[in-house]
């Protein structure tokens, strides 16, 4: 009965979003989404999410200075920087390399860079999380990834790249929305929204159990919590937060 309800409601949602499916079929939606729609929407979603998650992020990034190199310098790589909502939480003087698969976030990114002059911006690399070949192995003290592992092609390959670029003893910080408990209403609605949500929001997957990937990755230490961030009317309230040490 539950599966039939999911299928019926998923079909209804698909019909409502039929214009987008048609644009996708014609090859129009993806470039429009990448260049115009997603950067515009993400900047606003990031602002909304930021208000709801600010306390959690402050707590998460509080120990970032502990992972500075012996010289005292903190070299940080952010995967999927987007418009840069995390800059405000980085310690003064840290050297940040920004990466994103989508180069169309310049307006929001420039705005956040100008607001956060306490950090040094090294470079912006157009690259996917699964391919950080422009970053030398063992060259960074910390990697940050927030609301990105939901949309990478491969979570496992991304975590392998994280481990490669981190120096021994470096840390990976994450905050990601994940699948809800399978018996919950949240998961029910995630199942309904999944195909349309993924199409509209540039490959974002609602039902990834990313904590399992982190548990199976070869980190020496993993500090992970399941939390709920109050985002009313959305299927992305369950999150995981924490850091892992190489």
From TrEMBL:
<keyword id="KW-0472">Membrane</keyword>
<protein>
    <submittedName>
        <fullName>MET7A protein</fullName>
    </submittedName>
</protein>
<dbReference type="Pfam" id="PF08241">
    <property type="entry name" value="Methyltransf_11"/>
</dbReference>
<keyword id="KW-0812">Transmembrane</keyword>
<dbReference type="InterPro" id="IPR013216">
    <property type="entry name" value="Methyltransf_11"/>
</dbReference>
<dbReference type="GO" id="GO:0008757">
    <property type="term" value="F:S-adenosylmethionine-dependent methyltransferase activity"/>
</dbReference>
<dbReference type="InterPro" id="IPR052356">
    <property type="entry name" value="Thiol_S-MT"/>
</dbReference>
<dbReference type="InterPro" id="IPR029063">
    <property type="entry name" value="SAM-dependent_MTases_sf"/>
</dbReference>
<feature type="domain" description="Methyltransferase type 11">
    <location>
        <begin position="77"/>
        <end position="174"/>
    </location>
</feature>
<keyword id="KW-1133">Transmembrane helix</keyword>
<feature type="transmembrane region" description="Helical">
    <location>
        <begin position="7"/>
        <end position="29"/>
    </location>
</feature>
């Amino acid at each position: 009965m539950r599966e039939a309800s999911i299928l019926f409601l998923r079909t209804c949602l698909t019909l409502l979003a039929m214009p987008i499916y048609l644009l996708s079929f014609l090859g129009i939606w993806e470039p429009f989404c990448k260049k115009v729609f997603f950067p515009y929407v993400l900047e606003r979603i990031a602002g909304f999410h930021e208000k709801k998650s600010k306390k959690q992020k402050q707590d998460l990034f509080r120990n970032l200075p502990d992972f500075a190199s012996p010289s005292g310098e903190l070299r940080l790589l952010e995967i999927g920087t987007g418009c840069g909502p995390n800059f405000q939480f980085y310690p003064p003087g840290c050297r940040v390399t920004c990466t994103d698969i989508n180069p169309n976030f310049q307006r929001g990114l420039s705005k956040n860079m100008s607001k956060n002059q306490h950090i040094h911006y090294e470079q912006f690399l157009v690259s996917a999380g699964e391919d950080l070949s422009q970053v030398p192995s063992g060259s960074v003290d910390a990697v940050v990834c927030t609301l990105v592992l939901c949309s990478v092609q491969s979570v496992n390959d991304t975590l392998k790249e994280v481990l490669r670029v981190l120096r021994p003893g470096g840390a990976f910080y994450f905050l990601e929305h994940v699948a809800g408990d399978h018996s919950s209403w949240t998961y029910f609605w995630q199942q309904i929204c999944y195909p349309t949500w993924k199409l509209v929001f540039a490959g974002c997957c609602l039902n990834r159990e990313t904590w399992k990937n982190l548990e199976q990755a070869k980190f020496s230490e993993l500090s992970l919590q399941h939390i709920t961030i109050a985002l009313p009317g959305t299927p992305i309230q369950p999150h995981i937060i924490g850091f892992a040490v190489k």
